[in-house]
Write a structure and sequence with these properties.
CATH class: Mainly Alpha
CATH architecture: Up-down Bundle
Structural class: mainly alpha
Strand order of the largest sheet: 1-2
Distance between the termini: 50 Å
Largest sheet: 2 strands, antiparallel
Helix content: 55-70%
Number of helices: 7
Number of strands: 4
Length: 192
């Protein structure tokens, strides 16, 4: 599998549109509804992505700035390599493998739809800009520590592909909640 800046940016634009559809016409109660004790709400899925973005994007921005200073140029498309493909396969929806989120990425129990949705869309714009900034760099020569472990370092091509897949994973998870058979109707719908 090969990736490039344009395909990742396009995927993020699709994610933005998908998130808009997901959140359209939801009440805060629906946004925070959980189908089970150990299942995240739509709010928690998106809050987790926001927390991840707030904490991990600055690391990526710093790595890109360092590579720019060192003039690590190339651009083009990249093969992910064995580890990149493995982690991408584990991350992509539909979810086959579940992982416990590290404590620093755990979402709040409840959030307001508007603030989480706005931050999510803003972080997608930042991710698109980050990829655009990195477009001329040699992604395979830029090593970035995994958010899970400082010991595991992947190249920027793999990290960016996995980050975008992580977004899709949790949007898919949020759609499973919205489409759940017990998903509550809006209060206005109950009155009619």
């Amino acid at each position: 599998m090969r990736i490039d800046a344009a395909s990742l940016q396009e995927q993020l634009l699709v994610i933005k549109v998908d998130a808009e559809k997901l959140l359209s016409d939801l009440s805060d109660a629906q946004f925070n509804w959980r189908p089970g004790l150990y299942v995240w709400s739509i709010a928690q899925c998106l809050d987790h992505l926001n927390i991840f973005g707030r904490q991990y994007f600055p690391i990526l921005i710093e790595k890109i700035a360092q590579a720019e200073k060192r003039n690590v140029l190339r651009g083009g498309s990249y093969d992910l390599g064995f580890l990149g493909k493995l982690f991408l396969r584990l991350t992509e929806p539909p979810v086959r493998s579940r992982f416990k989120a590290p404590n620093r990425f755990l979402p709040a129990p409840e959030k307001q739809l508007y603030s989480v949705g706005e931050e999510f869309q803003s972080l997608q714009d930042k991710a698109i800009a980050l990829i655009q900034q990195a477009e001329k760099l040699h992604w395979r020569k830029i090593k970035v520590a995994s958010p899970e472990s400082k010991l595991l370092k992947l190249n920027l091509a793999s990290i960016l592909a996995i980050v975008v897949a992580h977004e899709r994973r949790h949007l898919w998870q949020a759609w499973q909640i919205r489409n759940h058979c017990n998903f509550p109707a809006r209060d206005e719908d109950k009155k009619n």
